[in-house]
Amino acid sequence: LPTDAHPGSAPYLTLRHIDQFFGQFQALKDISLSISEGEFICFLGPSGCGKTTLLRIIAGLDCQSSGELHQAGRDISLLPVSERDFGIVFQSYALFPNLSVADNIAYGLHNRGATAQQRQQRVAELLATIGLSGSEHKYPAQLSGGQQQRIALARALATSPGLLLLDEPLSALDARVRAHLRNEIKSLQAKLGVTTIMVTHDQEEALTMADRIVVMNAGVIEQVGTPQEIYSQPASAFVADFVGQMNFVSGEVLDQHTLKIGGRTLHCHKCRDFSPHAQVRFGIRPEDVRLRGHQDEANRVRGTVTQMEFLGSFMRSRLQVDGLDAPLLADISMNELRDLNIRPGQQLDVTLPAERLHLFSH
Ligand code: ATP
């Protein structure tokens, strides 16, 4: 499979040609993926792209219409939930409100023949791991959202599953708690080494937590890669637009090095991947647009600043560039801005570095 993280070593989880139909509607289309042991994978995509559907199939909560799943060398395609090896955390904490923290965490241990003492010990161990020692006798209603989600995590890990599934576990929490828990989950996962799949529609969450991101759109996988690969080498315009910001302009490839947009030509390294006269979408990230000197004289265009937006550590300016019908966004750090003294209405030279230009076929 093309998506193997460590070619040579046997993958821990393999999905082969998974399709899922709901009546006539196809929610997943030919999904193939391999995941190595210990990896932290994020399924990232907009609402309705099929990420939860795929997670539910991996858990066995739904059965795929066709395709196979293998986990730790065994075919789990048709295995019932109870015989699969995973722990799961949902967006809504889904703790039992009438059970104490200890009973919530130990829930899955009851039917595994653990003695009361073993359960107590395991609960204490897990509470220490998530930083909530001493809360055994509390009830979910006495805990904050973030604490409840940590308990849900402890419950999912209680049986030491080989696979941890997280379905938007942070999205019900406020921004501060979310950022904090993001770090906690990440370091806990690294410490335990448990293979983890997290569903999220939040690009920042995926970029900061994942070893590899699976970007999904309308039931298909658009790209699988490390956060750096997804960001700096997006495989499609969809990925470029969904992860980070990108300016898009229609253009035509002239030859191996040259691109035509809006009546002007630009040098572009990616042109060699296309045949002459190919109609393309040209893209550049706002932070790659240079508002100050750059050696790439060939790709210098004249623009007018129409708007400036302060975004904390950087300024996003909107530029009207001669020959382009759409405005171009350019980000500049506040440090650089100090020396440049840019104002709305100002005309300036803008460089679009040849090595920073992306080309997409649609
Ligand atoms: P969200 O973040 O909104 O949950 P998602 O990417 O997780 O989005 P899914 O929940 O996997 O998306 O849904 C994928 C598509 O399948 C959607 O169009 C959804 O309406 C449809 N779908 C999901 N479950 C069912 C079902 N049981 N019956 C019919 N259609 C369904």
TrEMBL record:
InterPro entries found in the cross-reference section: AAA+_ATPase (IPR003593), ABC_SmlMolc_Importer (IPR050093), ABC_transporter-like_ATP-bd (IPR003439), ABC_transporter-like_CS (IPR017871), AminoethylPonate_ABC_PhnT2 (IPR017666), Mo/tungstate-bd_C_term_dom (IPR008995), NA-bd_OB-fold (IPR012340), P-loop_NTPase (IPR027417)
Keywords for this protein: ATP-binding, Cell inner membrane, Cell membrane, Membrane, Nucleotide-binding, Translocase, Transport
Pfam family, one: TOBE_2
Presence of the UniProt keyword Cytoplasm in the record: no
Boundaries of every ABC transporter domain copy: 13-243
Domain of life: Bacteria
Membrane recorded as keyword: yes
Name listed for the protein in its UniProt record: ABC transporter domain-containing protein
Species name: Pokkaliibacter plantistimulans
